[in-house]
Amino acid sequence: MELRISPLTRIISLSGFLASGFLFVILSCALYHNYYPLFGTLIFLLAPIPNSLFGRKGYDTSDFMSDTTNNARDFGHFLTSMMVTSGIVLPFVFYHCQLIGSVSCIMSMVGGLIIYLSIIIFSWFFSTSWDSEDDNLFG
C-alpha cells in the first residue's frame, strides 16, 4: 500500500520548512546587529535558476558516452553548483574577515541550506504531480 500525500499538505509542510530557513537567517542578522548574512541567502535563492533555465531533459543511460551531450544543461549544473558552494562558503569568508561572529556564521549557513533544500524539494515534489490526473489539488 502506497502512502499518498496531498499537494496541499506538501505545500504547507514545505512553507514551514522554508520559514524555518528564513528564521535562521534573519536571527543570524538581527541578534548580532549585522546584516552581511543576507548576501548568502540571496545566493541560495538564485542558485536553482540556472538548472531551470537550461532545460529539463531526462538522463538516459544510453546517452552517457555519446558525442551529442547537452552542453547547456551541463553548464546550468555547473552554475548551480558554483552558486551553492559560494552560498556555503560566504559565511565562512565573512567570519574569517571578522565581519560576523561564529554563531551567526553557522546560523546563516544552516538557514541558507534549508532555504535551498526547500526550493529543490518543492520542484521535486511538483515535477510530476501536475501530469497525473489522480494527484491533483481538487480530487
Shape: flat
Count of DSSP H/I helices: 5
Instruction: Please tell me how large the radius of gyration is.
Output: 18 Å
Specify the structural class: mainly alpha
Task: Give your account of this protein's structure.
This is Vacuolar protein sorting-associated protein 55. Keywords: Membrane, Transmembrane, Transmembrane helix. It is found in: Membrane. Pfam families: Vps55. This protein is mainly alpha-helical and about 140 residues long. It has a domain at about 15-55 and about 70-125. The chain contains five helices and no strands. It has helices at about 5-30, 35-45, 50-55, 70-95, 100-125. Helix 1 packs antiparallel against helix 5 (about 100-125) and helix 2 runs antiparallel to helix 4 (about 70-95). The protein is flat. The protein starts with 6 loop residues before the first helix and ends in a 14-residue tail after the last helix. The relative contact order is 0.21. The model is unreliable at about 135-139 (pLDDT under 50).
Write the layout of secondary structure elements.
Elements lengths: L6 H24 L6 H10 L2 H5 L17 H26 L5 H24 L14
Q: Which features would summarize this protein structure in a list?
A:
membrane; Vps55/LEPROT; 139 residues; mainly alpha; single chain; transmembrane helix
